[in-house]
Amino acid sequence: PEDMIPIAHNAGGNLFLLGETEAGHLLWDHELEAEEGEVPDMSNFYTISQTFTDFLNTLHELELKNS
Fold this sequence. Notes:
Layout: E1 5-9, E2 15-18, E3 25-28, E4 45-49, H1 52-58
Antiparallel strand pairs: 1-2, 2-3, 3-4
């Protein structure tokens, strides 16, 4: 959406969006995007936090195992 700003992405290519919405800050799941010719809607957006501070508090370092 025009009122949202992408601020990060996850390993799967989905975007974390920052914006002032009733839902808060959102995750956009690109795998569920409308197909060509379909009308896009918000069904592939998920609320991840109500505030930016809450979003930052959910971040953590990923511990990788050595192969």
